[in-house]
Description:
11 strands; 45% helix; DNA-binding
Amino acid sequence: xxxxxxxxxxxxxxxxxxxxxxxxxxxxxxxxxxxxxxxxxxxxxxxxxxxxxxxxxxxxxxxxxxxxxxxxxxxxxxxxxxxxxxxxxxxxxxxxxxxxxxxxxxxxxxxxxxxxxxxxxxxxxxxxxxxxxxxxxxxxxxxxxxxxxxxxxxxxxxxxxxxxxxxxxxxxxxxxxxxxxxxxxxxxxxxxxxxxxxxxxxxxxxxxxxxxxxxxxxxxxxxxxxxxxxxxxxxxxxxxxxxxxxxxxxxxxxxxxxxxxxxxxxxxxxxxxxxxxxxxxxxxxxxxxxxxxxxxxxxxxxxxxxxxxxxxxxxxxxxxxxxxxxxxxxxxxxx
Amino acid sequence: xxxxxxxxxxxxxxxxxxxxxxxxxxxxxxxxxxxxxxxxxxxxxxxxxxxxxxxxxxxxxxxxxxxxxxxxxxxxxxxxxxxxxxxxxxxxxxxxxxxxxxxxxxxxxxxxxxxxxxxxxxxxxxxxxxxxxxxxxxxxxxxxxxxxxxxxxxxxxxxxxxxxxxxxxxxxxxxxxxxxxxxxxxxxxxxxxxxxxxxxxxxxxxxxxxxxxxxxxxxxxxxxxxxxxxxxxxxxxxxxxxxxxxxxxxxxxxxxxxxxxxxxxxxxxxxxxxxxxxxxxxxxxxxxxxxxxxxxxxxxxxxxxxxxxxxxxxxxxxxxxxxxxxxxxxxxxxx
DNA sequence: TTGTAAGCGTTATCAT
DNA sequence: ATGATAACGCTTACAA
Lengths: 335, 335
């Protein structure tokens, strides 16, 4: 920068002024500066800027599992919002790196990160998240900590769950089983609540619907489906409501391996509408959430927090859409 | 930091010494310093460090499409290698952000990034990549620029392609079609070369095997499969060699939509072994690459470049593994 | 062994 | 409208 100043025969402050439009500069001098910048192929040193401005123009994105396409889509949304503001996004994959959340807290305090978008996904202990939130601005995606009201971007999972469940029930199923998500997770609770509402509305006895607790991973879908379906035929559920697509896929895999036909013998519904849901055989009936938009929104909320000291705008839950496909059919009226 | 020094009643340099083990410090003073650090909950300001050290402890990862699980896995590998060195990984998704590569070049020069791992995937013009490489250390993954010998981490795609093609030919297929990748891409060339070798080895006429050019995306797999199969039955290929899984999936989708049975009517083979390959019906025969390891290795190579000024170690191509599954069978000897 | 002080490249305050 | 100059928080000769 000194070089630029010299080359343009002005002072460094003038250079700074034109670079940031932060001060009045005479036309001729301004021209000389931009000319010098070009001539020397000058690029401002961002480290120095960051030091001065006490901000890194960088946010963190904590994502449990990139191979989960739902997360990948959210990530794209975050990326886009950040790019619009010339902010960098650093990936934090606790799963892959085996780092505790406290590490991210440290990143926040050390100014390497201005804020964090947190995709808990599979469930982190609330206290850890609170620790993180103490260290700097945090926005949760598709998650909420009961009791504390951290900024969060969510979709209307309860409604979505009610809708799929109603749809399934509308097909005439009388014996269902629910393969739910981890107990501590807000989304899991919401979806479970939605299922229950629909079941109650259909006049079914809630006691008659087993509620299994999974962990949102394929394997648990597999083993819980096995568990749910390993009962005498007359009690066997004719439909499985899975709280996310991964578990639904696991359930599907189990059925394949056990020779149980879907949807003829048992219907399966998922949640999330990951890109592969429609590529499976049968195509998975599920509920889609606007993943990219949610990521975009989350980042936007974060930037609002970073910008103004003020508001923490309440955002509506995002709408969800029932995706009716082949994995759900009417129960075959055997016996 | 000044506060810490005061609290411990030492000078700032002493604090710095203990924080970095960069100087000899007496036991008692050292103890006082770490005590003070704890007491004040001090976290070093990384921006200042970066300014001083002229490095950002941050690398960039350019990835065209996160929803592609192969890339997601590579990303996990990169993350892990970086985390081991306390280096941050910033995500650059040109697709999502619509930013030209020159932008990444600027990031390199402005010290926001120390280096870049580049996953071209779908193909970037070589000249742009070279521009990037001029601005700082770059490691390519699964890609190579012909003529220039940039550091790159690759797998033995040619071998893999030969193996899968041999396997298919071994099943007795006489009429094949190749759905290849973008012409400029090194991986696409390699795989094509491998296919050709196997075809020649089987004594088939190369002219008799149509080589279609796709773009590695599902849609092109769909439409090229349509094109390849829309010929009189006696000339119709009985097997499709797809240069990646996404196109294979597209081909599969086309067959489903057209009522063509796989593998009974036509066999399909892919490349990459993305996680969903084994979840499809039929399960996709494909070639797996150690994606996570490749990412890890790429980051490692980059760090070597950053560390020592010296070597640019030649790395062996990673091994590939043929995954035999259901989507390939012997041709039905109709007619 | 420990402290002093000179930068690192910017921005911003203040005279001019 | 412009230019010195003092921070920003840290590292590192160099001096003591």
